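Anyone? Bumping this.
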Amino acid sequence: MNKLIIELTINNKKRKVETTPSTRLLDLIRDDLHLTGTKEGCGKGECGACTVIMNGELVASCLILAPQADGAVITTIEGIGDDKCLDPVQEAFIETGAVQCGFCTPGMILAARKLLEENPHPDEEEIKRGISGNLCRCTGYQKIFDAIKLAADRLSSRDGGRSEKNA
Amino acid sequence: MHQRTVPCQYFAPQKIEEALEILSEYGKEIKVIAGGTDLLIQYYDRLYEINDWLDLKNIKELKDIRINKNQMEIGAMVTHTQLEKSEDIKKYFPVLSQAAADIGSPQIRNRGTVGGNIINASPAGDLLAPLMAYDAQFKLLSLQRESLISAEEFFIGPKKTILEPAQLLIQIILPLPPEKTYSCWIKIGKRKALIIATITLALVVEMAEDNKTVKDVKTCLGSVAPTPIEIKEIREKMIGKKFSELDFNQLGQIVEDKISPIDDIRGTREYRKDVAKNIMINALEEIDLARTGRPHNE
């Protein structure tokens, strides 16, 4: 298997990574960059656990080859907040108890972030559609909806700017 | 660990000509990749089996949607999200936009492409019945020649098309429909998101100037045959007739009688036949409502 080097910007850092043409972006993120917040669920693009934001779009990193991401700008769950300062969506998930086992949470939060960026005041149907690519087998979704509504309220009542700055 | 004798190569050219040269050199050995949302699932766990990749992501002209005189030209790398959100597509080809919006999930729609949906040629490909209903032609290019093929000629079986190894699908061309064109899209599946269709219907009706007489009609279905199909018998029953005098039940029955679906995990043959009739009736009612502003026979 021959190697190739790709360059990408991940969580605002430029990285060069040696990889192979058949490596999935998901594996590159987890195994080479050690960003294990991104999870592998089904590996078939159906569960959304591997969701990241690539070039401003929500994508399933299990369905992308590493070289397809050459030159891309990627945000993973590690890139939207830190121990001292969580993203408002993360805070809302914690406060409403929208996290149970936690496996879907990184993808769910990125999907919620992306939804609120495009549509700051989603109704329930729009929330359902926004996270339709992310499965949760614990919560029954209600608390996730509550979290997204809470985050939407907070983001619009604050300056709404934090989500933009970190995007 | 699989040992490969020839090293695997990854090409991502910027120009169509380069892509065609690579394709003619490597032929069947190379896999063309667009969004990868179907391809990578098919090769999940077996990615090492692919020797070489040809990625079209850097070819900018394949990502455009544009109107050229009286036709819409859609690049093969246009994503489902682009189709869903494009104002021009919504205006002229609403069924195509709605079908794109019904595909998979945001994650899938952001990556999956119209060209990929066509080349993959799944009998359940969501865009295929709408493309056929809008008289789509596919522009195929090889180093030697360019050809335009209708959707009807292009698909020859489940996952089978007439595309040759040295050819690339580069563009989808749709004639802009006349003003009084009404359309309806119905997708039936077990859930809304991330579902492979049990049956799809794209009905496009062109009315005459009087807005009462049917001038042309296309009734195209997916997931009911080895390829997307048009029920041509509907034409004889509708063209030249007053829409208000149509027997929707009879038209639904024709659709039911003319399809030959199979039993599979998504539905039985019998179920699909029943549903085909009902969604045809629903689609006709919806078009009548859009046309007159009131329900049929009122």
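Late reply, but here is one note on the structure posted above: The interface with chain B takes residues 1-2, 4, 20-22, 24, 43-46, 48, 51, 57-60, 62-65, 67-68, 70, 111, 114, 129-130, 132-134 of chain A (CB under 8 Å).
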